[in-house]
Specification:
By secondary structure, the chain is α/β, with parallel strands linked by helices. It has one domain: Rossmann fold (3-Layer(aba) Sandwich). Strands 3-2-1-4-5 form a 5-stranded parallel beta sheet, sandwiched between helices. Helix 5 links the parallel strand 4 and strand 5. The chain is globular and about 50 Å long. It starts with a strand and ends with a helix.
Length: 138
Amino acid sequence: MRVVGYVPGAYDMFHVGHLNILRRARERCDYLIVGVVTDEVMLESKGKAPVVPHEERLEIVRALSFVDEAVPDISPDKAVMWHQLHFDVLFKGDDWKGTEKGTRLEAAMAAVGARVVYFPYTKQTSSTLLRQFLLDSA
C-alpha cells in the first residue's frame, strides 16, 4: 500500500532544520507532499509575516529532489488540507508533541483516518533564531 506523507510548514528562511524534517519524512512515505503555508496563514498562525514571500518559499521547496509535490497550504486547520490531498500521515516537529495544538492536530487527523508522526525539532537552528539574529545585526 502506497503511503502519502504531508509536511506543512512556513519554510521561511529555509535552513537545515527544514531539510532534516523533509528528509526524515521522505524516508517514512512513498510520496511526499509539502504544504508551504501562505503569507496570510503564517500571519494568522504565528502573528508575523514571513521574511521570504510565499512564491519564493514554494519554489525553494519544489526544487528539492526528494519532494514529490509542493502545494500552497491555505489553512491553519490541517483537516482542510487533508480533504484536498488525502494523505496518510502528517509529519511535524516534536515541539508540537504533548501540547494543546499537537493534541488538537492528532484528534483532527485521527477523525479522517490519518496519523501524526513527530520528528526531533532542530533547536540550534530555527527561523525564529535567524530572524532574531538579523534584527540584532541591523
